[in-house]
Amino acid sequence: MNAHNAVRWDDADPSQLPYWRRNVVAGGPAGGIIATAAVDEANGRIHFSTAPGSNPFAPQQPTVHTLDMQTGAILWQNTAETNADASFASTSAIPGVVFVGGARSGPLRFYDAAIGAKLGSIPIAFVLASPPAVVDGHVILGGGIGQASDDPMDPANIVSHIPSDVTALCVTHTLACDADQDGADFPDDCDDNDPARNPSARELPDDGIDQDCDFFDASSRDLCLQGGSAHQDRRDIDAVRAAMEGACPCGDFDGSPGHKRGDYRRCVRGAIQSAIGAGTLRGRCKSQLLQATCGRPDTVICCEEWWRRKIARVAHGARRRARAAPPGRGRSRPGRPTVPTRTARSSPSRRRRRPRRRAQPPAR
Ligand SMILES: [Ca+2]
Ligand SMILES: [Ca+2]
Ligand SMILES: [Ca+2]
After folding, report:
1. How remote is the CA of residue 309 from the centroid of ligand 3, in Å?
2. Of 60-69, 71-80, 144-153, 311-320, which range is least confident?
């Protein structure tokens, strides 16, 4: 209710409106209030910004204002800022925060809606041309200033035809926010302030840093697909397998002449070696890539890695012992090694027993 003429701001008879006036800057053809204001009815406040006037580099001050909705009294202005930028866009507000764009530069500024303290600013690559829209925790911004005309030499006309991206800002460490712009959102990104750390980053061993967000640092002593190297190894193996399949489709190696196991191994050798040489595959994972039925379609690949390594060790030991045995003293072909089992034990009757020692009396 206006104290002077008893007219409400939403009175059915608008003939007495406006019921208050307030001059905040000098105004003029390129100055004054820019676009629409943000109205906070709950708290009776009107937030708005002003255009620069004739000189964008020395704009009419102050440039951000909050008035009492009922009386038009100035509640706060951004007088604490030195040569504060003006605005070329409407002002937006949410409970507690006022958003204002710029006129000569890109930063989006935000102010405490109650007292006008500047809370901060975010650099953006364009001058704001529309009011910031706040949706689900994101601040959506549109750029692109200028004035379309028929004059092809008019700078305002030229810039008005330059496409401008829409930009969305979010609050760091809130859901779906990718603060470091590395393509991974919080909380999947274990360090949303460091683009070198995210689930797709390459894990570097022995540096005490978990680059790929699997909670572990890799060790150069890790076996393939084990320890802190497991996550990176899996991605590397999958990538090399895809390259191998592209260069040497497994289906082409059906065991027929020219398409046997050896032919397949020769074919994929380049893809594997180039990955190892480029540092995108650890040499310890090479054997993983060669476990395939390509070129030997009737073979069954054993699913137990432990058994595969155990058999290889037994076979290697048998060959070494056979080579070391002197000629003519029972040297024989190592043959197929016997697969040991964890539960197998030698028979007690064939076990060599050590004689028990009897306790001796202490020497006097
Ligand atoms: Ca991120
Ligand atoms: Ca690391
Ligand atoms: Ca890691």
Report:
1. 26
2. 311-320
